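To: structure desk
From: M.T.
Subject: fold request, one chain
Message: Could you run this one when you get a chance? Sequence is below, nothing fancy, just the single chain.
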Amino acid sequence: MLNNIDLEKKINSELNTKISTSKIVHSTLNITIEKDDLKNVLLFLKTNPDLKFKQLIDITAVDYPNKKSRFRMIYLLLSHELNNRIIIDFSLNENEKVFSITNIFPSANWMEREVFDMYGIDFQDHPDLRRILTDYGFQGHPLRKDFPITGHTEVRYSEEKKKVIYEPVKLEQDYRNFDYNSPWKGTEYIKEIKKINE
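Reply: Done. Structure tokens follow.
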């Protein structure tokens, strides 16, 4: 059984031209690769008898809107037999496509659809790339940093029309009156009410 240091040495020696950087953080090996090497690296990690990373735990992304390479793709793998974890990541420009890994890990199907829906990252050769978490006709990608926190539209049931309707978001602040006093001292209106009742 390989510990993290031996695991890092083995992967770096076998995939030396494909690994940009590697480091151990919180007992997990993190490797950075180039986008085009993704399939080869994953196949090696899954099929190598000394590594046995046979389970894909998750695929996600991070949005850095001010960087040249806007997105960072992240893949998490687990070896049940050897009790090892590995994180693989690479940078990606906004309109670049990523190779789908559904033929290597079938569970990637839904994970890639989530990343597509939330971040707008397109996966090349995906068997069924469509939204999975948002509604039909939804505009934008909610986990991008430039997406408004309130969204663009709201969905509600209209008693008047007796159906679900979509409307632009309207946030009314008229009735919000904030008292910035310390909660430990109590608010002024409660003190005034107590004085009146005494």
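Reply (cont.): The two ends are 76 Å apart (CA to CA). Let me know if you need anything else for the meeting.
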